[in-house]
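Mods, move this if it's the wrong board.
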Amino acid sequence: MFFLKEYKAKKIKAPDNFANRRRIMSSKNKNLIFLLDKRFSWMKKYIKGKKIIVELGSGNGCIEKIIQNKKIILTDIIKYPWIHRKVDMLKINLGKKYLKKVDIFIINHSLHHCANPALTLKKISLYLKKNGYILINEPETSFFLKFIQILLDDENWSLKAKVFSQRSIFNPKSPWVSNTAIAQLLFKSNNKFQRYFPQYKIVENKLSEFFIFLNSGGVNSSFFYIKLNILFLKMLNIIDDILIFFLPSIFALNRTVVLKKINENKK
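Not the wrong board. Structure tokens:
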């Protein structure tokens, strides 16, 4: 299983974003809040003082639980009631008034649902200001993520996908089709990414999350968890950091990436 390059789930599963949003926004689950805090709180230093912030693929909008910033424009391909604008990540149709005006783009666990991530990153750069940032959280296709996906028959991965080709790597027939290896393929090699995207500089590229995700109770689904207080959650996070430091390809379940736009697109 560790050496499998591809996996295709038998059935595409669509999360119930209405139910998940209600559960998250009213949650007293400290485990889940700790996980969300780890995913989003680091973004505050980039967001502070910025005027135009756009999240792509907002889904259930759980970012609002941690970052209570009314300037964040929530977008998604599905126009849920909490979504401010309907936006297709393959088109990034924000309009002329946003060209080279956006300070921050946020992509949280949605890029792997994008059939053409290279095209999306190119289109984002048309709207992003020079010295603007893209803040990304994405699944990391480690041994244990593969194990979880096979065990739950949940989402696809392909380490063979040609993510830099600006061609669709899967059929975008549904917003829930995915390849959870996209971030690993795009960002594992800083030098390779820079060759294809000279308009960006990778300023952060970190792996995280193992036990704190497995024992969170779930973000896009609800599952069993053991309740822990903040002290034990912090200890668990330290254990995660140690495991991932020594064995990243085994334990890491999340990749955090920060891209900075340093110049304009080169045609």
